[in-house]
Amino acid sequence: QVQVVESGGALVQAGGSLRLSCAASGNIHSYNFMGWYRGKQRDLVAYISSGGTTNYANSVKGRFTISRDNANENTVYLQMDSLKPEDTDVYYCNLRFSDARLGSSWGQGTQVTVSS
Q1: Mean pLDDT over residues 1-11, rounded?
Q2: Is the pLDDT of residue 28 over 90?
Q3: Which end of the chain is more exposed for a tag (fewer CB within 10 A), N or C?
C-alpha cells in the first residue's frame, strides 16, 4: 500500500510565496512521474519524471518550480512564487507507478488560498 501526503497549504497574500511538499511512502518500487494537480478537475500544475524532466501548465510557467528531494526521491516540492488569487484551489499530489497495472496514487489535497 502506498501513501501520498501533501502539506504546506496556507493563506497568503497576492504576490507572496508558498512551498508545498509531497511525501510518498510504502510499497512504491518505481514510478514514472510525481506531479501536482489542482481543483475538482484535477488540472495539471506541474510534474517531474523519475529522470528529472519537468513540465508545467502555461498558467504557472515562470512562477512555480517543481523539484525532488535529493535525499529522498519519493518527496517532491512545489515552490510557488508571485502567487495570484486565481491560484486559489486545493492542490493534490499524484504518483504514477511504472507498472501501468498499478495506476497511480493521490494524496488528500492541501488548500492554497491567495487573497487580493
Answers
A1: 96
A2: no
A3: N
